[in-house]
């Protein structure tokens, strides 16, 4: 894999564009009920820390989805733009927003206990339950 480079992308209508530097070319799949309701399936996202810049921010709506996180989407076309923690610097950007899709590798699945039986991924990944995921944040 190549070294990590700044990635750019946009929503479906182009009213919101973004530039972000991912922590790696690894992406994760979240199977929690909230992510599945939000997008109709698992959220496939890349962790970008706080290094994310948006152009057209006036076109972003924020949904307060839990006590600890919020989700952003384009007001015009509805494209999902991010999941971010309210505390700390952590954006999860849907991988499909980025213009370059050649380097990504599915590496992790979270809320694996919530994954429905009607789909599965062929890749061997690190699998975490919701409890295991949250324990990573409480230990830091």
Give an account of the 3D structure:
The model has no long low-confidence stretch (mean pLDDT 93). It is globular, with a radius of gyration of 15 Å. The protein has one domain (7-138): Beta Complex (Metal Binding Protein, Guanine Nucleotide Exchange Factor, Chain A). It has an 8-stranded mixed β-sheet. Strands 1-2-5 form a 3-stranded antiparallel β-sheet, with no helix packed on it. The protein has helices at 33-39, 130-138; strands at 7-10, 17-20, 26-30, 43-49, 52-55, 60-63, 69-74, 80-85, 91-94, 105-110, 126-128. It has 140 residues and is mainly beta.
Secondary structure elements and pairings:
Elements: E1 7-10, E2 17-20, E3 26-30, H1 33-39, E4 43-49, E5 52-55, E6 60-63, E7 69-74, E8 80-85, E9 91-94, E10 105-110, E11 126-128, H2 130-138
Parallel strand pairs: 3-10, 10-11
Antiparallel strand pairs: 1-2, 2-5, 3-4, 4-9, 6-7, 7-8, 8-9
| Outline type | globular
Summarize the helix and strand pattern as letters: EEEHEEEEEEEEH
Radius of gyration (CA) equals 15 Å
- The number of domains: 1
Instruction: Decide which structural class fits the backbone.
Output: mainly beta
Give the CATH architecture. Answer: Beta Complex
Major beta sheet summary? 8 strands, mixed
Counted by DSSP, the helix tally is: 2
Query: Which stretches are low in confidence, meaning pLDDT under 50 for 5 or more residues running?
Result: none
Arrangement of strands in the largest sheet: 6-7-8-9-4-3-10-11
Mean pLDDT across all amino acids = 93
The helix content is 10-25%
Per DSSP E runs of 2 or more residues, the count of β-strands stands at: 11
How big a fraction of the residues is strand?
35-45%
What name is given to the CATH topology? Metal Binding Protein, Guanine Nucleotide Exchange Factor, Chain A
| Ends apart, CA distance between termini | 29 Å
